[in-house]
Amino acid sequence: MILLDTNHVSILRMPQSERRTRLVERMTLAHDERFGIPIVVVEETMRGW
Question: Which of 4, 16, 19, 26 could make an S-S bridge to 8, C-beta 3.0–4.6 Å?
Answer without folding.
Answer: 4
